[in-house]
Amino acid sequence: MTNKQGYAAYASNRIMTATPAELTLMLYEGAIKFCNIALDAAEKKDVVKTHNNIVKVENIISEFQATLNHKYPVAKDFENVYTYLQQRLVEANIKKDTEILKEILMHLRTMRDTWKDVMKQAGAGR
Q: How big is the chain by its Cα radius of gyration, in Å?
């Protein structure tokens, strides 16, 4: 088994055995990773790479929106934040604007860090 295959098996197993809270954290981490790649690509004027990675972030945000549980009042607040991020991602993609991408990264990091705190308080992490 090559290193690539070993890593793919590990990553697949990690996802398949993760709790819902851990999956949410992985999605935040992925959104941050792809936003960083898009920012780096935008700084290098790589239009295609910027676009492709912004779309990946948009897809993750769409997944967050689709899985919101609206029986809780806080879901409306998250919906508003996700809608705002989607609008900013579209704008960043049209303009290939690094400042907007930096703003989005700041929000994603804050949300990820807050989620980590929630996981610790709830004892949801392993």
A: 16
